[in-house]
Design goal:
single chain, alpha/beta, TIM Barrel, eight-stranded parallel beta sheet
Length: 297
């Protein structure tokens, strides 16, 4: 099986160590004016930051239209040698004041857009539930995601606002016939409730933990313990990691810390202290993402 990167399709075995929820280029008029702390428009800055990430082979850029710049991701990938997987789909509503279609198009029309993106350099479908929860419009977008996933087999990467509403998403996806094994729920380590995590994993969905970067100076943050406990409970095949590095203050290149390399380097020692040995880290950072991202024969 193959995954689709911005430079073309590659074999599953070529994905290697994978960061599963990244933001390498974020650029739009809305981002520049309303969310300057998240505005990451520069290819040169992204290249410099990624050149520090010597352990990483693949990154999933989690921004669909509303900030996605595929041509720039192509250049970043060519210059760094890192595989980049771009996203179709939609993020939360706040990113789309200049995109009326994103707020009004029918699920059928959205699915046509999403499928066209997947045919043109995108390799994952983004879905997002914002502060409004699973309202009627969000459910309409999910219907488009379900149609696209059914027709293409492409993986789904879901945004859980504040780590919440994971089970509500799962139930809505199940009702629409989405294969939960193809779904990754992001940001869920913002919530420390172990029962919540077990329930999501019991459904067959995958979880992506990405708060280690933002809480690098907090030794008591739950990401490491959650990962260890869920793996010990038998869910190691459904766990993945990322940085969600959509803050200028997190990039070393921009004077921030700890830098995107942290997850693949210093944080590995912290995981080891939590009892997550090398073979388990390989499963979480190589095998699980490769299985999830591969959908092309």
């Amino acid at each position: 099986m193959k995954a689709r990167t911005v430079l073309g399709d590659i074999e599953q075995s070529e994905l290697g160590v994978t960061y599963c929820h990244e933001h390498l280029i974020l650029d739009s008029p809305v981002l520049a004016s309303e969310f300057p702390a998240m505005h990451l428009p520069s290819v040169d800055e992204a290249v410099t930051e990624l050149e520090r990430c010597s352990t990483v082979r693949t990154m999933v850029d989690a921004m669909p239209e509303g900030g996605r710049q595929v041509d720039r991701l192509v250049e970043v990938s060519r210059r760094t040698g890192i595989n980049i997987i771009s996203s179709t789909g939609l993020h939360t509503k706040k990113y789309y004041p200049g995109h009326p279609w994103a707020l009004t198009d029918s699920s059928d029309h959205l699915a046509v857009r999403f499928e066209a993106d997947l045919a043109d350099r995108c390799g994952v479908i983004k879905f997002a539930v914002g502060p409004e929860g699973l309202d009627s419009r969000t459910r309409e977008v999910l219907e488009a995601v379900a149609m696209t996933q059914t027709r293409t087999g492409a993986p789904i990467l879901s945004h859980c606002e504040d780590g919440l509403l994971g089970m509500e998403q799962i139930e809505a996806m199940r009702e629409l016939g989405i294969d939960l094994a193809r779904v990754v729920l992001s940001h869920t380590d913002k919530v420390a409730d172990r029962g919540y995590h077990r329930a999501m994993l019991e459904s067959g969905a995958n979880l992506e933990y990405d708060q280690a970067l933002r809480h690098h100076d907090d030794p008591d943050h739950p990401t490491g313990p959650l990962l260890a406990e869920m793996a010990a409970a038998g869910y190691s095949g459904q766990l993945m990691l990322g940085t969600d590095g959509a803050r200028r203050t997190l990039w070393k290149t921009l004077g921030g810390k700890p830098g995107l390399a942290y997850l693949g380097e210093d944080y590995q020692l912290i995981l080891e202290r939590h009892g997550i040995d090398q073979s388990l880290r390989y499963q979480i950072m190589v095998e699980n993402p490769a299985r999830w991202l591969s959908f092309l024969s």
